[in-house]
Design brief:
By secondary structure, this protein is an alpha+beta fold. The protein is built from two helices and eight strands; from the N terminus they run βαββαβββββ. The longest helix is centred in the middle third of the chain and has 20 residues. The two termini are about 20 Å apart.
């Protein structure tokens, strides 16, 4: 059985292509390869989306919470496969099922990202994911990632790119 792994921001940079302002995982508390990950996102009032969502009561957009969960899932897939991604491969965020939002996430909150592998089938990874603030569930969803062909360098960075495949 693989040993639990924790990752700081420098290790996260090796697993995810995202950078500010779209890198949404600050730390991995524990990653159990082949099973689950527990990661953190510290929510700051300086996040760019808070200027417009909403100026009088900043609330983290639900799609951003789901993206944070997908990024944690991508890290879990790589660690589970024992692969550090490179620019020649990419994983796409290909599906969301059963997404639910239970409470607002506000500046100052620490979002706990908990993701478990449900199954892998023909290269498609399916995860169950939950985002918590303290003990309170903020959001939950089933997420799917799949390998894809990377876009040429000039066109890279399009919507949906998560991480490279194992």
């Amino acid at each position: 059985m693989n040993e639990p792994v924790s990752l700081d921001i420098n290790a996260i940079y090796r697993y995810l292509p995202h950078r500010f302002p779209f890198l949404l995982v600050d730390r991995v508390i524990e990653c159990l390869p082949g099973r689950s990950i527990h990661a953190l996102k510290n929510v700051s009032v300086n996040e760019p989306y808070f200027q417009g969502h909403f100026p009088l009561r900043p609330v983290m957009p639900g799609v951003i919470i789901i993206e944070a969960l997908a990024q944690a899932a991508g890290i879990l897939a790589f660690v589970s496969a024992g692969v550090v991604p490179d620019e020649k491969s990419i994983f796409y965020f290909v599906g969301i099922d059963k997404a639910r939002f239970r409470r607002p996430v506000e500046p100052g909150d620490q979002l706990q990202l908990k993701v478990g592998i449900e199954r892998t089938l023909r290269g498609i990874w399916r995860f169950s994911a939950v985002a918590l603030v303290g003990e309170a569930e903020a959001a939950a969803a089933d997420i799917m990632l799949a390998p894809g062909v990377p876009a040429p360098a000039a066109a890279a960075g399009g919507a949906g790119a998560v991480v490279s495949p194992p």
